Amino acid sequence: MQHDENQPEIIIDEEFQMLLPPLEESVFTQLEAALLKHGIRDPLVLWEGILIDGYNRYKISQAHNLPFSTVSMEFPSRDEVTVWIIKTQNERRNLTPMQHRFFRGLHYLTEKRIVSNAEGRNQHKEVDAHNGHQPKNLSTSERLAIQYNVSRNTIRRDAQLANALIAIGEVSPEIKLDILTGRLHISNKQLHELASGTGEDIQILIEQVEAGTFVSRAPAGTQDENGEPVDYAEPDEQTHHDYSDMRPWEQSFTKMTDDFRQVLRTHAKMDDTKSAKSALRDYINMLEDLYKNI
User: Fold this and answer.
1) Which of 191, 199, 210, 211 is the most buried (most CB within 10 A)?
2) Who contacts 213 (Cβ-Cβ below 8 Å, separation ≥6)?
3) pLDDT level of residue 228 (50, 70, 90 thresholds)
């Protein structure tokens, strides 16, 4: 990490910038007043000249010609930068529930890509660096489930949600931002359907939003471990179980099987055999863990 007291040319990368939640107008105004009074004390963070942290400070500096310093960080790839941005944003704890889910899902998708790119290239040390003190034989969903204190199924659901939001953002960044900030409410069920749908489905949603005719369907009422609604199954396909008469291992088996059925159905709609096999392997691993613990 290198400090630079000069003001080098800053490169704005739209993909990275979209990862950073915008400040509310009132919060931005307060930040602007503080920087005008005290100056920009915290350095902007760069990677190969690209700004990866400090967009609001940079915007204010340009508007008022305020001096600033920079810190240059080294990463082996854009995916590694993405993971760093996600972790940095999560640590700030000023995210909406939808933003938390999007970042968890994007973290999973990015980590999977890093692992995939590292396979066969003798880069295992690079991948293991993400594990910290976790066992190295954990799957990506298992590692992130521990990191975020949620279940592996929640991580995989969040990945589906992230895919849907990415697809929406490719057509309309404004609507994606409205969903992430909570200005536009769309149910988990609808995002799940979009993730396994087509570009036409995305376009229909955007046209409805722009025309003011979009209606978010009410969630089914199921909640995950964070108290957030989970409504991925079709209403008539949801199975309601009486857990009171089940042993703990029966509860675990029933829940993981129901969750796996929904995940597999999504991959089947997408005709994604590779992802389906990966989901099946995760399910087999969970069954083996359950078998050992009975």
Assistant:
1) 191
2) none
3) low
